[in-house]
Amino acid sequence: MKSAYSRYSAFKFTATLTAALFFWPVYSVADSSNPFILTYQGRSIDSAPYSFAFPYRLEHATIEHQKIYFSRHVEGEGKHLFVTDWDPLKPISLDSQSATKVTNTDLNSINFWRRYLNTRLGGLVAEADEDKAERINLWLFADGADKPRRLTDVDYIYEFTQSKDHSAIYYTARYGSSDAAKGCLEELTIQNNGSTQTRQLICDDNPAMPARINWWTKLRADSERVVFPALKDGDRNKQELYTYDLSDGSVSLMFEGHGKSWVDVWHGWGDEAQALFSADRDLYRYDFKADEAVLLRRFDRALSGFRPAGSGEAPNIMVTTETPFETKLEVFAVAPDRLTLLSTTTLSEDVWLADGYDGQVMVGKFSPETYAAFDMLTVVHDGSFTSQNAIKGLAEINDQLSQCNVERVQVTHEDTSSQSPGTQTLDVFIYRPRDLPPVEDQKFIVTAYYGGKNEFSSYHHLFCALGLTKVSPAVRGDWRYGTEFANSNDREKADAPIRDTLAVARYLMEQFDIPNSRQIGTTGYSHGGWAAVRAVSYPGPERLDLGFAIAGGGFYDLPAIVDPTKNGETNIHGWFDKEFGTADQQELLRVLSPSQNLDEITAPIFLYHADRDTRVSPNQSYSFAERLAEAGKTHELMIIPDQGHSIRGPEIWAEIRQRLLDFVSQTP
After folding, report:
1. Which residues contact 15 (CB under 8 A, 6 or more apart)?
2. For range 196-211, the mean pLDDT
3. Given this model, what pLDDT does residue 54 score?
4. Which CATH superfamily includes the segment(s) 56-302?
5. Are 81 and 59 in contact (CB under 8 A)?
6. Element (H, E) at 579
7. This prediction's pTM
8. If we measure between CA atoms, which residue out of 276, 277, 221, 216 comes closest to residue 244?
9. Whole-number Cα distances in Å, 179 to 115, 141, 185, 214, 339
10. pLDDT value for 290
11. Quick one: which of 614, 573, 584, 581 has its CA closest to 183?
């Protein structure tokens, strides 16, 4: 039966944070209408500060044009975008009262993805939609405008870039509801008066285009050409880069990255003669005149970020490489045939290179203990740099939001399966409550996929405050260790991260003297939703009797995903084919489906899904819940109305978390 989540319940209010430090809705201690209070086993915490106390989310910073765009939740109005002028050499306090509001659109009501400032249009151009249905187009969020303006009319935009003078935008688009549909490279030209016009440059139904235009990596444009990604035969294991000649419309293969997990051209460096691009751990310089790619350096870990760190067309570059536990920040001089290392700095935080221009690089730093810190680096020619605080007022907020003691451990186990045998070492974050319940009352929630993130998680810290331990491992399939590790869970090896998760659960039992394996459960979203349920339905010899699973936006009947009569089950068939298999691999898909392994399920399962999800249809959760009910399995299904695959809104998330907390509290 379809059901919607209930309205906000009344909970006892127990303040655990100092309200005077924050900017969030004020409720009296006796006010039972506070929808943000979370309760579990006699403990309570107000989750509002985790949405409203942190004063903003940095959306886009441009050193060249001296503007910062940020969003923040406004009580009673939703989440809004603001812009403020900025001197990059002076620390700034972001204040929505003194900033300009950019449209009256509630960002929680739309998808709002990659964005660039376009000076000709006078605002931020973003990949967005109208109703979270993932019909993604380019929209202009102009400074001070009442509403955003749609610039394109396609079914989906994968990526876009713009010319240096902002007179043209180039984007890869799809015409159809899934990535099996026609893809095109298109151009949006912008006149001085702000008028625009679009045209198709090349589509993949043209015999001159030998690969499918349906991939998410970056584009690059100069005055002569556009570099764009495509997939040979639509296969995500066959990534390629192509050039489109703006003078004659010809298309040429630039690089064949078959077998690579991520091939990416670098926007912001080079000119009409040369460009940089990466293929997993390898960095190349491409000479357009010679039509030649030269390997400059092979890094020891996956490349995660790049910014120019100097002036001119071919300046020094700042590069980040990372593992879950640290980030390496390096500055290089670029020669035609090599990189020369100028400086290296290793940080325990995850580092985001927010922007770089004329020797200035803005960096964001994140960790499990730190919500955010932003610094401005001034890089000199020899690669050394000085650092100063870029945004003020964050340290106090970081201290108040932290609720966990975080441990970083490595878990080693032996995978004896025939599909992916060998010794595996996993990087794991363990978030422990500062006030621990007795060991027999402790529960551990393990992220089954997309874990191991070196960043602050409100979810984890809220649950620590309630006495729950969150565990976040980087399992096989994670991109940060290079191609082999990233592809180590494809198709027949799809269960590799499940065996990793079960190994982590066994480690927890031994390390923390957990008397009962049912004190441990799993959680995950999307691919992770499948993984969370697969871990409690896994039929292999590594099986462990886990206590519960929390799964959001997941898929549980894999043959239905590739069934042509059920074309609406997903709009990302290419991704699914790579990860799990194609329509001609029915037996594999059946084996990997939790709905086909009901006899193995003894753990209660909490499912939640958005009713407008087009990436993974809610039919997957509806049908799985029906199968669980028919089999007499304990479960709960929560359907979130008016939301897509990206569920947004602090009130909604407070309700989801309380529902799943109630569910977990009832598990033995």
Report:
1. 29, 46
2. 98
3. 64
4. Dipeptidylpeptidase IV, N-terminal domain (2.140.10.30)
5. yes
6. helix 573-579
7. 0.91
8. 221
9. 22, 27, 14, 6, 37
10. 97
11. 573
